[in-house]
């Protein structure tokens, strides 16, 4: 299958006995599609996302992209991007430098970096703000910078872990629509984790529910 394929995935954390956070979950995401994992805190959705990205070790099952098993592929070579709920921007860098950070680390030339940053600033609706400090931005603007930074290297999958949960209700509703439109415009494949049914229905093409480590 073209895209992400997860089969019988298990995630367990150390303990006596071990705590099984994800219990044999199988799902697939087609290229260009966004899938939302919806469920309450502690149901295993963030653990599943973390195992897909590779920042948490899987205890069993497979995670594959275009048929390639990613079990032995390190995080930085999976070609996946990740957006956290707090953005995790570098406060000492400008908007443009935050977006360009990963591109610079990958060795992209300066002219190409500048062009890509300008393209992304336009995509997320922040034209002209490349030289502004991120501490001068609103919460919604900072999350758009985080989104642009994650999209900069053209990831084949973008994982979004409760990306709007730190914002107020009205802003979350507006930004959910904006993020959906940005993902569609960029052609990105998305895996969204959220506890908000309205957010899931707006941002994703499909919604699956998780309860107690399993798909409901």
TrEMBL record:
Record InterPro entries: AAA+_ATPase, ABC_SmlMolc_Importer, ABC_transporter-like_ATP-bd, ABC_transporter-like_CS, ABC_transpr_FbpC, P-loop_NTPase
Gene3D superfamilies attached to this UniProt entry: P-loop containing nucleotide triphosphate hydrolases
Limits of the ABC transporter domain: 4-216
Record keywords: ATP-binding, Cell membrane, Ion transport, Iron, Iron transport, Membrane, Nucleotide-binding, Transport
SUPFAM superfamilies in alphabetical order: P-loop containing nucleoside triphosphate hydrolases
Keyword presence, Cell membrane: yes
Record-level Gene Ontology MF annotations: ATP binding
PANTHER family named in the record: SPERMIDINE/PUTRESCINE IMPORT ATP-BINDING PROTEIN POTA, SPERMIDINE_PUTRESCINE IMPORT ATP-BINDING PROTEIN POTA
Name used for this protein in its record: ABC transporter ATP-binding protein
Annotated organism of origin: Demequina litoralis
């Amino acid at each position: 299958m073209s895209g992400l394929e997860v089969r019988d995935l298990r995630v367990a954390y150390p303990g006596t006995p071990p705590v099984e956070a994800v219990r044999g979950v199988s799902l697939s995401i087609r290229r260009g599609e966004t899938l939302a994992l919806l469920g309450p805190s502690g149901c295993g959705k963030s653990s599943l996302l973390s195992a897909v990205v590779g920042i948490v070790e899987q205890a069993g099952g497979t995670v594959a992209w275009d048929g390639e098993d990613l079990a032995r592929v390190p995080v930085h070579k999976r070609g996946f991007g990740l957006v956290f709920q707090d953005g995790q921007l570098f406060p000492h860098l400008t908007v443009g430098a935050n977006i360009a950070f990963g591109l610079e680390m990958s060795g992209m030339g300066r002219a190409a970096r500048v062009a890509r940053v300008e393209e992304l600033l336009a995509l997320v609706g922040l034209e002209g703000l490349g030289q502004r400090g991120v501490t001068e931005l609103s919460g919604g603007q900072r999350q758009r910078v985080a989104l642009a930074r994650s999209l900069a290297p053209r990831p084949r999958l973008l994982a979004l872990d409760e990306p709007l949960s730190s914002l107020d209700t009205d802003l979350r509703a507006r930004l959910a629509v904006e993020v959906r439109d940005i993902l569609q415009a960029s052609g990105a494949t998305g895996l969204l984790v959220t506890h908000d049914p309205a957010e899931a229905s707006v941002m994703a093409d499909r919604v699956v529910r998780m309860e107690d480590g399993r798909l409901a």
